[in-house]
């Protein structure tokens, strides 16, 4: 009898990760579908513009390289670079801001509606409850962002390799800005939304605070050039700071940019710069997440 009881399947406890992740996915399916539709629209636009490079090549072959780069035609370097910059603007920092906004709002609603009180009566620790939900949100947004970043990189590398872009800051931003760090910014947004939603516990203040904190952290990281401490070869190339803009920064859409830095990069610097920036942004995200867990511990001790 005792052997039969021991062999009988046990129902999953509420505190286990898989049931909690399933609950989170069921509750977040509506924002997930909305994000999916937005991602599909962006992806379709990137793919459509990618096939436009063939027209750019045909134009250059017909009018010559100088006319293609400095003339005025429907598919010249200026028009095609502008389209590529528009594609990148939708990816550079907007997914991070959406992630911050979504995570902050959903977390604040947990506290504001006191739904978390009901959840914590089911033998679930507060850290596990929120940790699984934040990880689920991060997984959703990251899973939608990675394919878009890959598509964009295919397009920009193709255009860069064929010398179809204009020369100058736009070319540098288009090539060097988007990559693994774009995905890391999404994780940063989730962490910022987790902290602000947990600390404020109110919907409307969190609507402002979550994206604002994400932007401020990114601005400090970019302005400080802290990523160059992990990418020393680039550090020796950069000279001076841009004096204009907020905090001495320029911007690529909503993403804070250090023009003096990006304009010194060469194709061989792409991966070291991206990986160093990614490591730094993920470190900042980890610190924000730890701060959110500390706030949870104080609220529920």
From TrEMBL:
Residues that span the membrane, as ranges: 28-51, 89-108, 129-154, 174-196, 203-222, 275-296
Domain of life per record: Bacteria
Keywords: Membrane, Transmembrane, Transmembrane helix
Protein name, per record: ABC transporter permease
Species whose genome carries this gene: Streptomyces bauhiniae
């Amino acid at each position: 009898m005792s052997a039969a009881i021991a062999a009988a399947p046990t129902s999953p406890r509420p505190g286990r990760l898989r049931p909690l992740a399933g609950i989170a996915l069921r509750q977040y399916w509506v924002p997930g579908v909305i994000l999916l539709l937005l991602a599909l629209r962006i992806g379709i636009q990137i793919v459509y513009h990618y096939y436009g490079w063939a027209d750019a090549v045909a134009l250059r072959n017909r009018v010559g390289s100088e006319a293609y780069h400095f003339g005025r035609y429907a598919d010249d370097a200026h028009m095609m670079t502008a389209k590529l910059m528009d594609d990148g603007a939708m990816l550079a920092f907007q997914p991070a801001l959406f992630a911050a906004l979504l995570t902050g709002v959903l977390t604040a609603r947990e506290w504001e509606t006191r739904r978390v009180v009901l959840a914590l009566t089911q033998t679930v620790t507060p850290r596990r409850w929120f940790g699984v939900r934040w990880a689920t949100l991060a997984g959703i947004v990251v899973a939608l962002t990675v394919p878009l970043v890959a598509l964009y990189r295919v397009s920009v590398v193709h255009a860069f390799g064929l010398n179809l872009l204009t020369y100058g800051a736009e070319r540098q931003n288009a090539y060097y800005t988007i990559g693994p760090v774009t995905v890391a910014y999404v994780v940063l947004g989730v962490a910022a939304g987790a902290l602000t939603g947990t600390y404020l516990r109110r919907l409307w203040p969190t609507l402002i605070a979550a994206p604002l904190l994400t932007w401020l952290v990114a601005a400090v990281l970019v302005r400080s050039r802290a990523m160059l401490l992990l990418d020393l070869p680039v550090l020796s190339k950069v000279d001076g700071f841009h004096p204009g803009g907020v905090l001495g920064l320029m911007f690529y859409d909503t993403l804070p940019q250090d023009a003096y830095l990006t304009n010194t990069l060469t194709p061989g610097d792409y991966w070291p710069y991206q990986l160093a920036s990614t490591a730094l942004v993920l470190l900042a995200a980890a610190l924000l997440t730890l701060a959110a867990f500390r706030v949870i511990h104080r609220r529920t001790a």
